[in-house]
Backbone:
């Protein structure tokens, strides 16, 4: 049994550490749950410092409804988060989020494969910012993606 499976099943001396990397255009923010900054190595071997903050993360449900959304809330006491999220929502095409899970005794690589999601929506109040990020919603996509329409294919009129 791996350490991660044992931690999910019961407990131990180790602690799970959740981290978020938020990319908004050229700005990158590294956040972790808790009040202590941590220094970890990513899956690419890059050494990063994640800033501790008040954050709550709800992972995507493992189901077949077609929407796999990660939701999280960040403390907005300083106001820095709301201005950043406002900028992300204005330029939502370039906003992504990477969720990584580490085990406190092994910070040299993520304990599980990281999620990289696109930021979909968000809202903020004076005390917190709530964000929803997810994969592309396959169920709401048209198939086939390229539409055979009369302006492009006039011969369809005679079928």
Residues:
């Amino acid at each position: 049994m791996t350490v991660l499976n044992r931690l999910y099943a019961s407990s131990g001396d180790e602690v799970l550490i959740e981290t978020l990397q938020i990319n908004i255009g050229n700005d990158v923010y590294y956040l972790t749950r808790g009040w202590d900054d941590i220094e970890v190595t990513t899956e690419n071997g890059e050494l990063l410092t994640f800033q501790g903050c008040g954050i709550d993360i709800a992972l995507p449900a493992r189901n077949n409804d077609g929407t796999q959304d990660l939701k999280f809330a960040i403390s907005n006491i300083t106001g820095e988060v709301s201005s950043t999220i406002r900028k992300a929502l204005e330029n939502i095409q370039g906003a992504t989020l990477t969720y990584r899970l580490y085990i406190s005794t092994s910070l040299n690589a993520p304990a599980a494969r990281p999620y990289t999601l696109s930021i979909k929506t968000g809202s903020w109040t004076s005390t917190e910012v709530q964000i929803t990020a997810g994969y592309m919603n396959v169920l709401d996509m048209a198939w086939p993606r390229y539409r055979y329409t009369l302006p492009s294919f006039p011969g369809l009129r005679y079928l």
User: Anything to note?
Assistant: The longest helix spans residues 80-90. DSSP finds two helices and nine strands in the chain. Residues 3-158 form one domain. Strands lie at 16-24, 27-33, 38-41, 47-53, 55-58, 69-75, 95-103, 115-124, 128-134.
